[in-house]
Amino acid sequence: MRNKLPHFSRCSRAPWVKAVMHRMSSLTAKKWMLTLLLLCWLSMPLWAQLVHPDPAGTATGTASDVPAAQAGKPTFQELADAVGHNRIAINIVWTLITGFLVMFMQAGFAMVETGFTQAKNVAHTMAMNFMIYAIGMLGFWICGFAFMFGGIGSVAALGGTAGLTHEVTIHLFGKSFGIIGNSGYFLNSSVYDVGVFTLFLFQLVFMDTTATIPTGAMAERWRFKSFVIYGFFISMIVYPLFGNWVWGGGWLAQLGVNFGLGHGHVDFAGSSVVHEVGGAAALAGALVIGPRLGKYTKDGRPNSIPGHNIPMAIIGTFILAFGWFGFNPGSTLAGTDLRISVIAVNTMLASGAGAFLAMLYTWSTSGKPDPGMMANGMLAGLVAITAPCAFVNSTSAVIIGAIAGVLVVVVANFVDRKLKIDDPVGAFAVHGANGIWGVLSLGLFADGKYGDGWNGVSGTVRGLFYGDAGQFAAELIGAVTCFVFVFSVMYVFFKLLDKVVPLRVQEEVEEKGLDVPEMGVKGYVGDQVEIPVY
């Protein structure tokens, strides 16, 4: 053996021997690898049985997941508590998510308004739409929320809203009428509650929708300092007061209980509370501040001042339409309320009908379909369906949206040509006029399939066409009250503010553009392309 080993060692150093041995070791390694992989694949069902996966989710969430004194064996009370907790959790998460959608509508408003204005004012218009969110948030936190919801009591869908129990009332004709809430200032410790905070966030973003509407009507000439003061005033005083009368259990909501007028003034998601308030404020502001330079000739004929970026306005409209799925379905305050599917579909149909009819009407009267009016028609349909979305069927939703699409064109032309009020984005036509139409349409088309117990009145909500003239009367009273109250207060406010902090920029600033003089930066850098008017 000792003589053979050196000989073998010498042979193993031969090149052909090394090649053969390397090939054999490589094949062996591959065989072992394939064998190992095959064994792993064959053992996968066994491992699956051992770890118990649940790809369909049918076995996920069992009694062992219910908090219980004895793990895996909850008592009936513990099960009931878990069911109740989960129901409220679903409602809170639903309300918060839809509130996030409504918050994103601020981007849509910014793009629509900026697209419909001139390039020299884009930074200023964007800044107003941006800062109204922050200003309104602080104003609503200080006292707006307290004035609006301080006496609402308990919102059962959110597990209660502790501390919101103080409503200032007056007594007339032997009845009580709620006027203003009086608890919840600064979200203090007495309302430090998950239900209250959920309600605050959801209602805050609704308020900001109202507050941003006048920024379009008064765009391209509004001094930023006076705008800031306005932002606090509407978020702290005007919006919360009317909101209390409708959503905070105030006197308009009590028209049913006190006088038998249907279920009182019903506004599911804000045609009057949000949009009519914003539209009336916008009309007052545009009237006080006056038209843009060059808008009207000496004999009163209107000149067209085209928006600089129609694609931006169209994209903004899509964002708003998307956010409206938070606006309307979210107003259930309950993901467990399955009416949300009806609300969502009604919202879509009304928006489509509004856009289509606005296009047809503009096309037939001016010879061109006008993309700007298509966008405003869709928004008008959305505004109009906001109040009745939960109470009407799909056919009624299409009719409501179609009427809104024509109404927005008619009102925009009337305001511009007859009243000589310069509203660059058609804010009053979209939000004011169609906010009124929205609540009136509820008083006409509510079909009695939803709303049992609304505002403390037994039975479902029915409009005039379904047998309840009192409901239409309540809607009419609310619509008239909203316009008279908001327009009057905001007109006086703007007049007084103009004496202290002038509303309007100097003439030379308006001619050059507000971006650099007011904001210190240009919205666009570089040469601007002049768009001809045909």
Task: Describe what this molecule looks like in 3D.
With 534 residues, the protein is mainly α. Helix content is 63%, strand content 2%. It has a two-stranded antiparallel sheet with strand order 1-2. α3 runs antiparallel to α9 and α6 runs antiparallel to α14. The radius of gyration is 32 Å and the shape is globular. The protein starts with a helix and ends in a 15-residue tail after the last helix.
Per-chain topology:
Elements: H1 4-12, H2 15-51, H3 76-115, H4 122-149, E1 167-172, E2 175-181, H5 194-217, H6 224-247, H7 255-259, H8 271-289, H9 310-327, H10 340-366, H11 371-386, H12 394-418, H13 427-445, H14 469-500, H15 507-512, H16 515-519
Antiparallel strand pairs: 1-2
Helix pairs in contact: 3-4, 3-5, 3-9, 4-5, 4-6, 5-6, 5-8, 6-8, 6-14, 8-13, 8-14, 9-11, 10-11, 10-12, 11-12, 11-13, 12-13, 13-14
Query: From the helix content, strand content and strand pairing, which structural class follows?
Result: mainly alpha
Proportion of strand residues: under 5%
Q: Please list the strands of the largest sheet in the order they lie side by side.
A: 1-2
**What Rg, in angstroms, do the CA atoms define?**
32 Å
The biggest sheet amounts to: 2 strands, antiparallel
